[in-house]
Every structure is written in C-alpha cells, then in structure tokens.
Amino acid sequence: MKLWKKGMSALLAAVMVASVTATVVPASAETQGFAAEFSSPEGNQSKLKTRYWMPGAWAASSEEGLQEIRREIKEMADAGYGGIELADVRSLTETEQDTLEAGNEDGSFLYGSKNWQKVLLTVLQAAKDYGLQVDITLGPHWPVSSNEITPNDDEAAQELTYGIQKIAPGESFSGIIDPVSVTTDSPVIQNKLKGVYVAKLVKEGTAKVVQGMFNSNLVDREQYTLDKDTYQEITNTDAVNKENFNVTYTNDTEDTYVLISVYSRGTGQSVDGSYQFMDYTDTTKDTGKSCWVVDHLSVAGAETITNYLDNTLFTDEIKQLLREVGGYFFEDSLELKGLTAWSTNMEEEFQNNCGYSVQESLPFVMGLDKAENDSGEQAIFVFDEDEDNFVGRVRQDYLDTQSDMIIENRIQTFSNWANETYGMGYRMQAYGAIVDSGKASAYIDIPEGEPLTFTNESDRYRLMAAGRDMGGKQLLSNEIGASFTYGSCYAYPYDDLLATMNRNMAAGVNQNMLHGYSYAFSPEVQWPGYHAFGTGTSGPWSSRMPSWENVNDITGYINRTQYVLQQGVQKTDIAIYRQEYNAAIWQKGVTEFYYDDGLLADAGYSYQFYTPGLFELDSAIVKDGVLNPEGPGYRAMLVDNTTDKKSDPLDSMPIDIIKNMTTYAQAGLPIVFIGNLPTHGLYEGETDAEFAQALNELLACDTVLQVASYADVPAALEKFNVSPAAEFTTPIDDVQTIRRQEGNSNYYYFFNSSAQLSQSSVTTGTGKDESFTVNLTGSGVPYLLNSWTGEVTPITNYTKTETGAQVSIDLPDSDTTIIAMASEEDMGVAAPKSNVIYENNIDTSYNNGALEGKVTANGNYHALLEDGTIYNGTVADVPAAQELTDWNLTVESWTAGEGNALATNKEIIEVGKTDLVPWSEIEAVGGNVSGIGTYHTTFTLDSTNEKLGAYLKLEDLSDTYSIIINGQEIDTCDQIDYVVDLKDYVKPGENTLEIRVASLLANAIGKSVNSGLMGKVTIQPYATVTLSSETPDPTPSEPSEPENPSSKPSDPSSGDGGSSNGGSGNGGHVQTGDVLPIAGALALLGASAAAVVGIRRKRNH
Fold first, then answer.
1. Which residues are CB-neighbours of 673 under 8 A, at least 6 positions away?
2. Mind telling me which Pfam families this protein's record contains (predicted)?
3. Which fold has domain 569-727?
C-alpha cells in the first residue's frame, strides 16, 4: 500500500502511437509477431509460478481432500499462473502431527508414504488437465535429506571438528583429546580421527566467526596463535594410538605447547525438528529420526536422493507424468550446519584441485564460515609469523575445493539426472554453503535467488545473473513474496510485492516463483485455511484474499514483463571482478558489492559481478574487445580495490586470474583497476615474485588503466569509448536498467528504485518520481511495451541518433517502463516513417491513419515531424479537472462461515455517504473488517466535445482495485500507479463511476492495516484532437494551461505505469528528413515554432 501517492504532478506524459504507413497507417493493420505473443504469452516458462505447500499427505485422507487439490490447481491456472512447485511444508500442532504419523489404512500421511504418492499423482494429473508445469522439491524438506542413511554414513553431511589440550612446561599428557563440542543425539555420532598436531602456543585471542547462514552477527571464538617453527603433525608417530585416539606427549621445553586433535564426523543435522517428517520405508535404518541431511559435497550424497526417488517414491505412472508435465527439480538454499564442511573424498579432491595434501594443514581450516570467502583472519588456529599468509591461502584453497565439489559432484549430478531421466531440469539456490554462486549459476539449469536472504540488494542478483549469462542459460528465478515485515500472512500488499519484483527484475531476474500457495486443509484447520509457515509469514496468495478478484491484472503484468525479459540474451555493459563469490555474503554486514554511490548506474551503465570461476568457462573469451559477445557482451571490466569499500581488501588475487585478464586486455577488453593494486597471489605456492611479473605484464597492456577512486571510473570508461547502451543525457538517480537482445531487436527495462527497502520488500510511495532523457542503442524504431494492457505501440515523439534513438521517460516511484528498439517486421507492428521532434504540450499518437493528440486544455496545437511536415489542430470545450468528493460506500465484509475452513461469510454493510478515509475511521465499518468496498459517485463533464476522454487519479488505496464507468468495466488497471484512462467511456454530461477496492484479509484475522479508498480522487478531462498538415496561422493562440502546467496527465496505458516522450534533449544528433530541412520548417512555423521549441525544451529540463 502506498504511504502517499503523488499528486497530479506525478502523472505520466506518455506518447501513444498506432501502426502507420508513411506518416499514416491503414485501419486494417493488425498486430502480429512479437506484439501478438507479448499481448498474451502462452508458454509456462514466461508465466508466474508459485510454491504449492502441502501439510504432509493430509490431502489423501479423503477423496474430497484430493478433489481440493484439483480445485486449487484449476484456480491457479485460471489466475494466469504457469506452474507450481510441490513441497511438504508444515506448521502444525502436536496433535495434528500425531494424526499425520498415525495415518490410515494406506499408511502415514508423511512425505514418502503411499498417501504422499497419491498426493503427487493427483497434482501431476490435475496439472496436466489444466495446463500447468510441475516442479518438485528434492527430498522432504531443506536441506535435502534422506531416511535411508544414518549420520555416520559416508552419504550423510559431515564436518571437521577439533579438540585442544594445553601442556605446561615440563608436563606430560596421555589421553583422548575430546572435541570442543559433543553431540548427544541418538544414535551416537562417531568421531573419526583425522590428525594430531603439536606446536608452541604463542598467545590466545579471539576470532570472529559467522555462525550459519541466517546469523548476520560475528560471534567470538577462542583463537590460538601458534609458533610456525615448532608446528608439526604427529599423527603417524608413536605418540598417537589411532585405534582409541589416545595421545601421549611430554613437553620438555620452557614454553606452553598445545596438542590439537582433528576429527571428522557426521553433522547430525536433521530436518525433522520436533516431529517426524518422512515416512519410514523398508530400507529405513533405525536412526532415531527419519531425515538426515545428506553430504552436499559428494556424488554419493546426491545419488542417495536420486536413487530414492527413482526406486522408491516415483511409481511408473508418476514417472510418466513427470516426463509430460514436469518442469524442474528444486533445491532450496544450502542451510547447512557444522563447523567446517567435510566429505569422505575431500582429501583426494583437495589434492587434485590444489596440488598438495591438506592433511598437514587441517587445523587451519577450522571454523570456515558457511558462505564467506576467508582470508585467514577468522581462523581458529593461526601462525605468529605468517608473512606469506600460509593460513589464509590454505583456507582459500579449501573453500574453492568445496565450491568445486558442490558444482561438479552435486549440481551436475542432479542436473544430468533430471535431464536424462525425466526430461526435466534442475533449479537451485546456490548460496548458503561455500560455493561460487556465479560459477554455479553457469551450470544450474535455472539458478534462483530471493529478496529475503539477499535483503533486497540488487548486487546479489547481478552476481548470479552473470553466471547465468556466461553459462548460456536463459532464466534467473526468484523466490518472491517471503516476508516477515508485515506481521501477518495476509498483510503483504500487492503493490509492495510488485515493486519488489520490479526491483529484482531490474537486477536480472526474469522468472518469479511466488512464496506461495498453501493447500486449504490440515487436521485441525480453522478459517481462513491452512498456513504452511504459520500466520506471521506472507502468503498464501489465493482466493482466500479479497484482492484475488484482480489477480489476472497482476499476473498479466508479470507474465508479459517476464516474456520480454526472457527474450534473447541479457546484454550488460560492465563486468566487475568479484573475488568474494558467494551471493549470500550479507553475514558480514555487506549490502552492496560496489560502493560508488551510484555513479555507474546514474550514467546508465549496466553491470554484473564476475566471479573467479567464470574465467574457467569456454565462453570466457574476448573478441574485438568484447567479453563473450554472443552472451552478455561485456565491454569493460573493473577491478575494485578501493580503501573505502566494505568488503575485504583485494590485496591478493590468483595469478591465473591476472593472466586471464592479460589475455582479455591483449584482445582489446578495457580493464580498470580502482584504488590500490593487489600485491600477492591468493593460493598456496604463488610467490610474490611470480605475482609481480604477471601483474606487470597485465599493466603493460594499452587497454589497462589504474585510477584512484570511483569518481575517476566514468572518465576512464570514456577514454576507452565505452558508453552505456542506455545512456542518460544527464545523470539520474535511482533508475536501474536491463537490456535484452534478440536478433536485431533490443529491449530496455527501466525501474525507479528510489523507494525505501525493508529486509525483503519495497515500500511503495516512499520514493520519488523520476524524469529523464535517454539515448538507446539499436536499429529500428522505439516501441512502447505496456505490460499491463499488452499493447505494443511505436513511439511518436523521439529523436534519431547515430546509434539509435533518444526518448524521454517519466517514471513513477517503484514503477517500470519497457521500450523496444526494433524493426516493424520483428515487432509485428507498423511504425511511422517520420517521427515527431517538436510539439507544444500535446501527446501525439497515430490512430487509424491520423496524427492525433490528447490535450487537457483548450487552444491551438502543433507538431513538427522530422521530415519537415507541420501538423496543426485546435481544441475547444475541454472541462477543467475536478476532485470527486460525494461518495457512497457499500462494504462486503469477509468473516468465517459455516462448514469447512474455506467457507467465508460475506456480509453487506451499507455505509452510505462517506469521506475517503481508512475503514477503521468509518464507524459503520471499523478496523477489523476485510473484504470488498464499492464506492459510487457521479460527476458531470460540462462539454459538447464529442472526442472527450478523462484520466482518473486515485491517491491511495489498499489493496487492489477495479473501475466501472457508465456501466463499462475498464479491462485492466495498473495496480502500482493508480492512474486510469477512462477513454471514451466518459461522455459529456453526467457520468456514473464505481470503484471496487479489495482489501487485505489481515484485519479479519486480527492484524490492523489501512483498508479502502483513501485521499483524493481526481478527474482530469482531455480531448482528442486530430492534427492536419496545413500551414499554421502565423500568429496562433497558445493552449491555455491547466491549473498546474507540470501536471498534465497522460495515458497510463503507455507502458508499465511509465511513459515515453520523444524530445530534443541534450544528446544525439538530429538527422533531418528529405521533405523539408528542420531550419526551413522552423522558419515556416515562425512564432509558433519558437513556442513549440521553447515549450518542449522547457519540459525536457
């Protein structure tokens, strides 16, 4: 819900055009090609999807329960969804869980049971019937787990832990050095001795260690500084009994020594929590729990899951349906526990990756965080004199080995299995554990992010989008809608959801997975239905909400936007080298990854983060100065090592990366170092001398430059002739840009990012509107793509430039605009042969072969085309704007009904006359009412103009709305920016207006939020004038100005709530037409032309 919607000054100044031939178009021209597909995208891939949460297999407790699945899937299909992701997610009472475990004659209602197979089969059959795609969550929950292993098996998740024993001077020790933490779970988790080490203790201190994925604070852990010269491994000496782990050692020195025992063991992590999650099978071992997390580093861990699904859970009928309607197997974020991840084959993998054994260095990898790169400062054991940073290098080698194991052993195993066995794909959130999220995204069929973990920071998506694009993948998915911010599962407004989605898509997301849709029933469910995550987390998004009546407006907008953002490949101007490669690095308090205060983005540059693993890809080659021209097409690379950035300093870099950069630079790619240069290699064995030689070779390249600060970067890029594909004529704050290219067509997506952020959502109405002029690169002409209505219209008012076109855009808070640079043939919509370059306060368009304009004031209007043609028109009898204040209200109040938990009683409250205030301030309604409010009024347009129309401006409302004017319902309403073109549904004289506002359900279940229509409602009449190409009156009268000249509204259907106006601007080169030179045309216009130019330029400034 908007905190405050802007007044009339925020209305868009849009330019709408229809098909033209020469300067006009025949009325018979029809939309085809891209435009037809955009209007109504058909593929499941471009449509919104949703998580579909089941409370175990409770739906199989009755035939009615299974039929409810069919009803819900049909509801989602009818709402415009393209697919679902099935998962067992429970928020149940203890007695409900007992009911699931007790089951019926077919067994329990737990995951993996015969009843779960019934649920899965019903879902797949219904999806086939109603045209949805089905994704399947891997395993019963996350992290992925199995009931066929114990925590002591090699296939289970493992960790390294340690024990420490101090020995005073002259003293001896004999015994077992116990691990610092001991598990008491049943069965007892077995420690396996990996090594014993001894060294003189120099001092004790404190290490700052991040504990797990969702703990953003660094916690203290004791740190031991060891003497490097006395450190030694004694595992294979007589001092150690490997059978019983007993260690015997005498300290015959005058210093304190420490003994360190390192153990591997199962982590004992289970997803069961306080209750059993998975059904026992014949192969289930007596583990005390049913679901132990599998090893995420080994092929064996992955195959534990694939073998279970192939051989136990999936019947032949299920397998066949998966081949027909299956989409992707999904793995959620890697929320793993443990001190330092381990795997049975870790030693072999490390040796192969790094060229040396990790055995003698095991103490130094203790305490590696689950998501961070680590320079050694967080190590539990360090050396006193470590000038070559041995500890940091070993730790980095260990991190990279883990990352490669996840990618090679897990991601590729799951992906190959899904592709080859079921013709499906693998979708994954590649963060949480140690993994190069960029490299992983190049291998995952669909990588996925989420604003909840990413704290709505765009740079995390940009990192994963770089991997997607370098890997030749098409999609970056997004778990959207999970939020704890609103305090209720029914309090997250759709406009905030859409604004959050818009922001994420501006960073590279092009497929959204809604969080989510809950099955209706559980054993003890109450109205309004089951909630998979309890009542404090957002969702379920379903017909339980009054605002569902407008869901097709919303899904239509999402589906069309995603359709555009899935075209071709994403083209990005700049690659920024990012050595800290995990997308979930927020644990260190890091928000952005590049801290230039918006200098790059304000100029129009798009950028992504290029992680070390991307250098390894076959696509990582430079041709003609462009990195991967068939992919993202980066035209420069930045290496950020400024002293004021929040992430770790880039003092060390891998020598291989430096050499790769040299190859890039020699092939013509500009590379700019910002701040200090690195001085050391990153990995063990890389000497400073070797590093210096490699760096000097790189710096010797003509395309490499070092600058002192972020402020110097734009000039450096300009020196290398690297300009943005979407270049703002003047820097503009808070506008993010995406460009996709399909063949010769370029699609530009603009988002106003000025609104405030919470952890997982955008609060609409807290930002500011933006107006800017931008030069777009591309052939063809600019088209406006309206994701709300599906209309594709060529832009009338723009200026041709040497590289494309210059257009002006007014972009409201949290809203978007999409512009395509394309040919008539590719777009499927004819375009005018000449564009308008000047006009005086008129929004021009072509309609049925005529040049028209929408105006809100009486007067004479003029338009000058680039070919020199001058068009004129006169408008009279346009009524003034008026605020509507005389309202009658009827509220349909939703409360618990009789019957099942979905039964809703809908009581009519006749309020009568009312002010436009929240329902909580209306005595007849009150603050605990949710439902649908219908507001009625009439207004009179005192005019005889037969070409009358009007814009309706709503200041604020919650949650969604629809408009009926004179008995005609407006097809689609922009649910972010509340401006509606009533078109010719209005008429001279009296008009009746009905506004239906569907509230959030939160009030009805005890969470107070504002509801209803609030603030001012304004009608701004306009007239449509047909312009003719006649010689103008030498001294024409100028149009009378509206009350607020800057507030001239325009057609909100002109594109995603934004608008596009051509304008002279400050950039680009005007190319005059053949009919009449521009100078001659201006002379012909005389005073009128001067007025036109002056007005237009004033509007552009």
1. 639, 641, 704, 705, 706, 707
2. Glyco_hydro_106, Glyco_hydro_2_N2
3. Rossmann fold (3.40.50)
Residue 420: CB atoms within 10 A of its CB come to 9
Residues of the chain with CATH 3.40.50: 569-727
| C-alpha span between 972 and 959 (Å, rounded) | 15
Radius of gyration of the chain from Cα atoms?
32
Cβ atoms of 920 and 1011 closer than 8 Å: yes
**Residue 852: is its pLDDT beyond 70?**
yes
- The structure's pTM equals 0.91
SS3 36: helix
Separation between Cα atoms, residue 972 and residue 558, nearest integer Å: 13
Please state, as a whole number, how many other Cβ atoms lie within 10 Å of the Cβ of residue 1031: 9
Mean pLDDT of 532-541: 87
Longest dimension (CA), the chain: 110
**Three-class DSSP labels, 894-905:** EEECCCCCCCEE
Of 942, 1017, 1010, nearest in space to 979 by CA: 1017
**Pairing between strand 83-88 and 49-54?**
parallel
How far apart are alpha carbons 330 and 325 in whole angstroms? 15
Encoded tokens for 478 = 């997004």
**Half-sphere exposure of 783 toward its Cβ, with a 13 Å CA cutoff?**
31
Q: What ranges make up the beta strands (E) of 1053-1097?
A: 1059-1062
Strand locations in 931-1047 (E): 931-941, 948-958, 960-965, 968-969, 979-981, 989-998, 1012-1026
Range 882-1026: architecture per CATH: Sandwich (2.60)
Count of C-beta atoms within a 10 Å radius of residue 618: 9
Residue of 167, 133, 465 whose CA lies nearest to 325: 133
Q: What is the mean pLDDT of residues 462-473?
A: 99
Q: Assign 799 to helix, strand or coil.
A: strand
Torsion of CA 356, 358, 360, 365, to 10 degrees: 140
Query: Tokens representing 515?
Result: 């969080």
d(CA 108, CA 98): 10
DSSP letter assigned to residue 991: E
Distance CA 911, CA 901 (A): 28
- Position 248 scores a pLDDT of 98
Q: Around Cβ 201, how many Cβ atoms within 10 Å?
A: 18
Q: Is 310 exposed, middle or buried (CB count within 10 Å of its CB: 0-12, 13-18, 19+)?
A: middle
| Cβ-contact 667, 625 below 8 angstroms | yes
CA–CA distance, 412 with 414 (Å, rounded to integer):
5
Q: What is the pLDDT, as a whole number, of residue 726?
A: 98
Please provide the distance, in angstroms rounded to a whole number, between the alpha carbons at the two ends of the chain: 31
**CA separation, residue 920 to residues 4, 487, 930, 1008, 1012 (Å):** 18, 18, 10, 9, 9
CA nearest 699: which of 667, 659, 653?
659
Task: Judge whether 459 and 592 are in contact, CB under 8 Å.
Answer: yes
Provide the strand spans (E) within 483-632.
511-518, 569-571, 574-577, 607-610, 622-623, 626-627
In the chain, CATH 2.60.120.260 sits at 882-1026
Q: Position 631: which residue type?
A: G
Residue the block writes with tokens 């077995």: 190
Strand partners, 233: 197
Token pair of 119 as six digits: 């649920």
**Is the pLDDT at 370 greater than 50, yes or no?**
yes
Predicted confidence at residue 33, as pLDDT, reads 87
User: How many C-beta atoms lie closer than 10 Å to residue 708's C-beta?
Assistant: 10
- Angle of helix 688-699 relative to helix 655-666, nearest 10 degrees? 20
Query: 43-92 pLDDT, tens per residue?
Result: 999 999 999 999 999 999 999 999 999 999 999 999 999 999 999 999 99
Cα–Cα distance, 942 to 1023 (Å, whole number): 13
Half-sphere exposure of 331 (CA within 13 A, CB side): 32
| Burial grade of 780 (CB within 10 A; 0-12, 13-18, 19 or more) | buried
